[in-house]
């Protein structure tokens, strides 16, 4: 994996400083930028040097503005989530982020793996978040909408694996196909469901009753 330029945008100074130290000792990371306000984030994004922007807390309210800034190249956005997010995951569905990391699972290993996944096009999502999503929305499905979207059997399998929070590589292994083949299936599912990310895709499938997730997880 190429050396990464990573920026931090979070109001919790303890978390920010600890994460900064962890990132500086991570082999994939070359530069760590500490953004104390949104103006500094905008400067970082406009420079097109930032590869990954890590966001948490109230700073997430500005994620939409970052993603819609119109720059030719924006950083991948990694959102830190906590216990309150896992209890109410629906608020995350429409955020234009590229991955999630549960603060309770934070370690040098989990951070490095999440950065690796996000840079190869995966949208990492903690299993706890996926399961919470299933539990929260599972009873709100609408069977009458099942015919609104037509998925192939492979796409349905892929959707179930997305709900388990699996990466493209893991999906490929479970389906017996290549990682690139899995990525194509995931992209197809997101396009058919009109979803900006994996979380939104799972929510859409649950709400519309496209597929029965009762056996998942």
TrEMBL record:
Keyword Transcription regulation on entry: yes
Cited InterPro entries: Sig_transdc_resp-reg_C-effctor (IPR016032), Tscrpt_reg_LuxR_C (IPR000792)
One Pfam family it belongs to: GerE
All copies of domain HTH luxR-type, residue ranges: 144-209
Keywords: DNA-binding, Transcription, Transcription regulation
SUPFAM superfamilies: C-terminal effector domain of the bipartite response regulators
Name listed for the protein in its UniProt record: Response regulator transcription factor
């Amino acid at each position: 994996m190429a050396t990464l330029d990573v920026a931090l945008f979070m109001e919790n100074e303890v978390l920010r400083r600890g994460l900064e130290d962890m990132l500086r000792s991570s082999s994939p990371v070359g530069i760590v930028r500490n953004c104390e306000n949104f103006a500094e984030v905008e400067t970082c994004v406009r420079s097109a040097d930032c590869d990954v922007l890590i966001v948490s807390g109230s700073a997430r309210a500005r994620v939409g503005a970052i993603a819609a800034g119109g720059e030719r190249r924006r950083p991948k956005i990694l959102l830190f989530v906590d216990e309150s997010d896992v209890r109410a995951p629906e608020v995350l569905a429409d955020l234009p982020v590229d991955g999630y990391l549960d603060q309770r699972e934070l370690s040098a290993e989990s951070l490095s793996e999440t950065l690796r996944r996000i840079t190869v096009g995966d949208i990492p999502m903690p299993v706890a978040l996926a399961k919470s999503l299933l539990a929260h929305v599972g009873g709100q499905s609408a069977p009458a909408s099942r015919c609104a979207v037509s998925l192939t059997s492979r796409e349905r399998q892929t959707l179930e694996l997305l709900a388990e929070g699996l990466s493209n590589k893991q999906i490929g292994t479970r389906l017996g196909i290549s990682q690139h083949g899995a990525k194509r299936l995931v992209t197809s599912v997101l396009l058919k469901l009109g979803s900006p990310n994996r979380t939104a895709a799972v929510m859409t499938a649950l709400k519309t009753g496209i597929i029965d997730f009762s056996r998942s997880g």
